[in-house]
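Possible race condition, two jobs.
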Amino acid sequence: MKKDEELLYHLVQEINDAIYSMDSHFIKLHQNLVTDDLSPKQIILLDFIEKNSQVTIGQIASYLNITSSAVGQLVSKLEEQQYVTRRINPENRREIFVSLDTSGFKYFEREEEIKRFIISKYYSKLELSELVQLKEVIQKLNQIVIKEGTIDALNDHHLKKGEL
């Protein structure tokens, strides 16, 4: 049984190394193609808005796990550069909606171009059946991770800080 565990460990390590190497390459490529000077938190905020069309300051605060005041500062900086726009909810004047603005839409148009470039340069070299299989395996692993939950897994194996 110990031999199987070692084999599993080494296989997973090789997978993780390959993914890390590939992600590092894609990040470097992405950085060379993107002209926007955005912080990681600003990018996460823009992604959240783009996926949800219109969000409130409270929703952003909850999603980013920061205060509404901190969200206000983050949104103000993005608003100055026309990445986002704010407007008061006409039905609840204490609520502020945040949505993408001109620079925000341009940012995501450029992101789409970069994705298509990466797909044509790299993923297109794989067979369609390989891509389908890759997608299925990654989705299956993702479902296992979601089902098991990180905190539950740590508690189940008694792996707490200092016990590793």
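Job #2 (started ~2 s after job #1):
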Amino acid sequence: MIKLIQVFGLASALALAGQAVAQTEADNRFERFAPSTTDYGRSHVDYSTWTMMLSEIVLNVGYSDRRSPRRDVGATGTRVFTGNTSRFRFEANRVIYHLVEDFHLDAITQYRQELEQVPEQLNFARLSPDEQLAYWLNLYTVATIEQVGLVYPQNDMERTRAANSELHYLDAPVVTVMGQPLSLNDIQYNIVYRFWDDPRVIYGFFNGTIGAPRVMREAYDASRVWSQLESNGREFVNSLRGVDNSPRSLIISRHYERARDTFFPNWPEDVRDHLSAFAGEDVMELIDSDIPVRPTSDEWGIADMTNGSNRCGGSISQTVSTGRGGTGSGRDAMFCGGLPDNARILLDFVVERRIRQFRDGSLGNVYVRDLPDQNIVIDMSEDDDENTEEETDGEISN
């Protein structure tokens, strides 16, 4: 400390000391969430309600075929195209926000509140590490979909603030667990990344953007949480947004760079080894090539079907208002007689790719849930008996 005072001055030394104290306090704040590795019971948390919700609002786009998308064009009568134009616009599962109405969001908010109460209903420390991991991943996903839905149709998530907050939606304390306000970044970096020393957890954090690991159409479950993460890992690594290349670089997602200090200290060898565990043949050739790693891929466009717009295209396009003070959401999106043009482009591409892969005999893990043109209903209702939390034989239903 004497040398620090001599070099930086007393004020700088005191500032460093203050930062150390603040870091210690922060560490203590999250220490309560450290999972036990030896002394835990057999309680199980059931997330079937969340699986039901996800199955109604998530479009499964399937695996990327790593083809560059064609250039999108505006519909007849206009040159305006309001869809996503990024290289990754046909990758990653999507939340169908343009059809989500206020009562859907109310159901998601209620479920998030119920999840927050779970640690107070049982001895959270005695849940197994896999149970606790599934809990944090589900809470993160619920809170993310809720926050993005509350500010929809904002589509640039890099600049999006949390509802009723001046803070970014990833930084704002949007959940409270065991009396501790937590942000989405707290859950990811200060809890899961800190206490689960396995890079596969990277693939459990869908932050509402196309560039993130995908959102699944089912909740994470402790009995297979690692296989679920591995499935997401294979999809992400073998997509353009996960691993791409230029003539002189192996371009990878910045999600790996954000996890570098935690999981890949021997950079870039560690991250190459990690990617190799999930890579298909084409991607493996890129990883094995002698080109430098550049973690520069970062797509912050919203992972919805319409890029925050319900424009139907052409000279008869109409914009409608919704109950949340925005445009392009709710069933008013059907006013034009079908899906908005930019949603149709995505859906048509997904179907076309599925047919092509089927003909090539490489359908593999591609799953597509086609949407009808009319009378789309998102049903997240549940029986009254299932709307209450019960603890029976060590099981919590949520």
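Residues 129-151 form the longest helix (23 residues).
Logs attached separately.
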